[in-house]
């Protein structure tokens, strides 16, 4: 059904473009569709046309940044948005996306400048600005400061125009703060607050399960784990955190009661993900073997991975953890 709907949408856009090839809204919609389909050459052509059509329209730069993000080129996206700040008539779409890309790229100085830019304009309410600055505090690892700001701004956020789009992000960031601070009771409180209004929110279910496990409430966590399991085929991004949850659930059981079959099934699904590299899968396999107590096999897998890519820090970290477990800490310094 989704394929049929997508095909119909493309057909409708193609017809609209034939009838009005100079209509900027149609061009931008065509570009968005091309980006979604990963047809980047077509998106480039359309957005070149859009820039020539109206260089003062903020949506043009927004789409250009979306294209850069889809190409995994945040630097180019940041440059396009900065150009939009200089040339576009409006920036309500541009500045928040610029902040997103700067934070993703670790450009905290740039993110502060963007917040200052938003502060100088009348387009952004104080609640949104406080939320944006809290995101920077989190990126600086000031989890106390970020959590205080997020809790303070949340009541006003609930009543603001940004609630639908940004409230889930606020709750997710607040949960991440409490997880980093190891305040798992507070992390659980945030997760359940979200679930009261949306029982199917997958990220909140994950946070609930992780918090319950870290509080030692393993049986309670199983309800959320079962929910995540029932949705993993529809949402493959749940597989890796589900692997972590299921592994923890097995490790808390006596050895003779452990059953790794479900964990291994989830791992097979991860191996099949075309976005994952051989090194990603080697690290995952090493983690599974380590959890199962198959230490020599884990050492062999991770050793092979390190020989293939000696500069990958994740492999060295996994090897260090394994060597500590094997009481061979004297070899860690050589990694």
Annotation keywords:
335 residues; mainly alpha
Number of strands: 0
Averaging pLDDT over every residue, what do you get?
Answer: 91
Structural class category: mainly alpha
Query: Treating each run of at least 4 consecutive H or I residues as one helix, how many helices?
Result: 18
Question: Describe the biggest sheet?
Answer: none
Helix content percent band: over 70%
Question: Beta-sheet strand percentage?
Answer: under 5%
The outline comes out as: globular
Q: H/E series, N to C? A: HHHHHHHHHHHHHHHHHH
Provide the low-confidence segments as ranges. Answer: none
Structure description:
- This protein is an all-alpha fold.
- The protein contains 18 helices and no strands.
- Helix 9 packs antiparallel against helix 10.
- The chain is globular and about 70 Å long.
Write the layout of secondary structure elements.
Blueprint: H1 2-19, H2 24-36, H3 40-53, H4 58-70, H5 74-87, H6 94-104, H7 108-120, H8 126-139, H9 143-158, H10 163-180, H11 184-197, H12 202-214, H13 218-231, H14 239-251, H15 261-271, H16 278-291, H17 295-308, H18 313-325
Helix pairs in contact: 1-2, 2-3, 2-4, 3-4, 4-5, 4-6, 5-6, 6-7, 7-8, 8-9, 9-10, 10-11, 11-12, 12-13, 12-14, 13-14, 14-15, 15-16, 16-17, 16-18, 17-18
Q: What's this, in brief?
A:
This protein has 335 residues and is mainly α. The chain is built from 18 helices and no strands. The model has no long low-confidence stretch (mean pLDDT 91).
């Amino acid at each position: 059904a989704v394929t049929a709907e997508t095909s119909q949408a493309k057909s409708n856009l193609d017809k609209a473009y034939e009838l009005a090839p100079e209509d900027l809204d149609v061009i931008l919609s065509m570009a968005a569709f091309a980006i979604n389909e990963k047809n980047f050459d077509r998106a480039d052509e359309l957005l070149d046309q859009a820039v020539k059509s109206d260089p003062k329209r903020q949506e043009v730069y927004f789409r250009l940044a979306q294209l850069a993000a889809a190409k995994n080129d945040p630097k180019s996206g940041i440059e396009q948005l900065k150009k939009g700040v200089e040339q576009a008539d409006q920036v309500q779409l541009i500045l928040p996306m610029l902040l997103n890309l700067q934070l993703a790229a670790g450009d905290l100085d740039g993110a502060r400048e963007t917040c200052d830019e938003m502060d100088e304009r009348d387009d952004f309410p104080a609640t949104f600005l406080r939320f944006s600055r809290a995101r920077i505090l989190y990126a600086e690892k000031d989890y106390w400061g970020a959590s205080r700001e997020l809790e303070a701004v949340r009541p006003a956020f609930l009543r603001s125009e940004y609630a639908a789009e940004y409230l889930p992000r606020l709750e997710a960031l607040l949960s991440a703060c409490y997880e980093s601070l190891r305040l798992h009771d507070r992390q659980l409180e945030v997760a359940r607050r979200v679930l009261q209004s949306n029982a199917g929110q997958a990220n909140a279910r994950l946070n609930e399960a992780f918090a319950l496990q870290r509080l030692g409430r393993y049986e309670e966590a199983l309800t959320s784990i079962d929910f995540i399991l029932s949705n993993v085929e529809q949402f493959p991004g749940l597989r890796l955190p589900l692997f972590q949850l299921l592994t923890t659930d097995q490790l808390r059981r006596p050895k003779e009661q452990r059953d790794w079959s479900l964990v291994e099934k989830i791992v097979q699904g991860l191996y099949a993900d075309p976005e994952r590299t051989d090194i990603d899968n080697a690290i995952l396999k090493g983690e599974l073997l380590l959890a199962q107590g198959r230490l020599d096999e884990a050492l062999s897998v991770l050793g092979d991975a390190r020989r293939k890519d000696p500069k990958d820090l994740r492999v060295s970290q996994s090897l260090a953890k394994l060597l500590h477990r094997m009481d061979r800490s004297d070899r860690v310094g050589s990694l």
